[in-house]
Amino acid sequence: MKKIFLAVLFFLFLTEMSNAVVITFDDHPDATQNAYGPIGTYNGFEFHATNSLDRLDWIDTVGSAWDYGAISGDFTMLDNFGGEGRINAVGNADFTFDGLYARIWRTGTNALIISGYQNGSLAVSAEYTLTTDWTYYSGWDGVLINALHLVVPNGIFLVDNLALNESQVPIPSTLTLLAFGLVGLAGVAGGKALRPG
């Protein structure tokens, strides 16, 4: 009985779960070989950009004329029309940015600025040098954000294997009801065991 009660208490305090995802762009429902198109809402996240079309694209960078490679599969994310790429969870939920692979489009080098925002305020930011090689850029362990911004000033960039970890907070009343139900079941089971035969 004591063990069940402690398990229920632990469950009550375990109010935050996570949904980790590595977005490869290979399973996008619209992805077509030797083509590109808007990402939109995908894998629980919304992809936007500060360009005239408000879009980030998926693109075939392996089996196409745009032979820039990929970390996994054939498809990557492309900031096709410039501007700052903006990614947020559906419902504006909090998440952490765990890392990504990126490279510049075509040739040369440029700065890649990755920023995390929480309710419109800058929470964390870092600047890297982007090259023609696919390079891994790590995220910020444990920093909760609800918007991730990516920009290469006056340049176009590719991203693959974008690792995000969305926080999901269960409704407290549901947890409470479940906990009381488990305590009740434990009490009934314990009571039956103590009755004389």
Question: What does this entry show, briefly?
Answer:
By secondary structure, the protein is an alpha+beta fold.
Structural description of this entry:
With 197 residues, the protein is an alpha+beta fold. 18% of the residues lie in helices and 41% in strands. The chain contains 2 helices and 13 strands, in the order H-E-E-E-E-E-E-E-E-E-E-E-E-E-H. The chain has helices spanning 2-13, 172-194, and strands at residues 17-23, 36-38, 41-42, 45-49, 57-60, 75-78, 85-89, 95-104, 110-118, 121-130, 135-138, 147-151, 157-168. The strands form 2 sheets. Strands 1, 2, 5, 6, 8, 11 and 13 form a 7-stranded antiparallel beta sheet that branches. It has a 6-stranded antiparallel beta sheet with strand order 3-4-7-12-9-10, with no helix packed on it. A hairpin with a 2-residue loop joins strand 3 and strand 4 (45-49). Helix 1 (2-13) runs antiparallel to helix 2 (172-194).
Q: What percent strand?
A: 35-45%
Low-confidence regions: 2-17, 169-189, 191-197
**What's the overall average pLDDT, rounded?**
83
Helix content: 10-25%
Radius of gyration: 23 Å
Amino- and carboxy-terminal Cα gap: 20 Å
- Count of runs of 4 or more consecutive helical residues: 2
Q: Describe the sheet with the most strands.
A: 7 strands, antiparallel
Class inferred from helices and paired strands: alpha+beta
Number of strands: 13
Describe the structure using short key phrases.
six-stranded antiparallel β-sheet, disordered N terminus, seven-stranded antiparallel β-sheet, 197 residues
Outline the secondary-structure elements.
Elements: H1 2-13, E1 17-23, E2 36-38, E3 41-42, E4 45-49, E5 57-60, E6 75-78, E7 85-89, E8 95-104, E9 110-118, E10 121-130, E11 135-138, E12 147-151, E13 157-168, H2 172-194
Antiparallel strand pairs: 1-13, 2-5, 3-4, 4-7, 5-6, 6-13, 7-12, 8-11, 8-13, 9-10, 9-12
Helix pairs in contact: 1-2
